[in-house]
Amino acid sequence: MFEFLKYDIKDGVATITLNRPDVYNALNNEITYELQAALKDAKRNSEVRVVVLTGEGKAFCSGQDLKASSAEPNRSFSDSIHKRYNPIIKAIRNLPKPVVCRLNGVAAGAGCSFAIACDIVVAAESAKLIEVFVNIGLVLDSGSSYFLPRLLGSSKAFELATMGTRVSGKEAEAMGLVNKCVPDEALDEAVKAYTDYYAKAPTKAIGLMKKMLNKSQGATLSEMLDYEAYNQDIAGATFDHKEGVQAFLEKRLPEFKGE
Fold first, then answer.
1. What is the C-alpha to C-alpha distance for residues 106 and 114, in angstroms, rounded to an integer?
2. Is 107 part of any domain?
3. Cβ distance 2 to 33 under 8 Å?
4. What is the mean pLDDT of residues 238-255?
5. Is residue 41 helix, strand or coil?
6. CATH code for the domain in which residue 217 is found
7. What pTM, to 2 d.p., does this model score?
8. Domain containing 76: what range?
9. pLDDT tens-digit series, residues 115-167
10. Are 161 and 104 in contact (CB under 8 A)?
11. Domain tally for the chain?
């Protein structure tokens, strides 16, 4: 189906694996368009309840393939960002299902942006996050200027951005850049703990909560109170709400269908 991605759906989990391990999953034109297509499929596929984004081999994603881009000396940076990178970040953030980053190795530049755009990030101890843009005289893109200060505060975000600081998995966990850091050999088990939960959770309610939390970044309390009421009506009309109430009354575990 894809040349530079692996895309697998099993037990409600869609796993998208960046698959250019020989170049540390660097991003050429083709892989960015394939990733857009995979995220689009995961959004519309009712079998998918949770998405995992990871990389093949030693790296998660080393960012833009500089060898490929240097072969296009007259390319427009903004065109590339608008057509290739921004749609991926928007797809991750607007996907009405949780996206878990399985951070198996280095995440640099746009690769770092991809990781911190996810809803949950589980990092291996050997993983490294690097906002590497400054090392080649460029600025943050792919959403890092949005996510970093919200996750870390402005001063720490400035430091990481302007110094290209290498942040280890454990350091990232301590500063709140990732949700969890585990030994490399425990990474799959830690990711599975999240996907097992989300694959059986009330997906529509979670999608609405994701939308609400996104909106809250630029909204007032009054606006969010109204938006909560609006979305509660939507959630209250779902099968999963009725099932949750019925399960509570019958003193059993709910069997959510994501509907």
1. 12
2. yes
3. no
4. 96
5. helix
6. 1.10.12.10
7. 0.95
8. 5-198
9. 999 999 999 999 999 999 999 999 999 999 999 999 999 999 999 999 999 99
10. no
11. 2
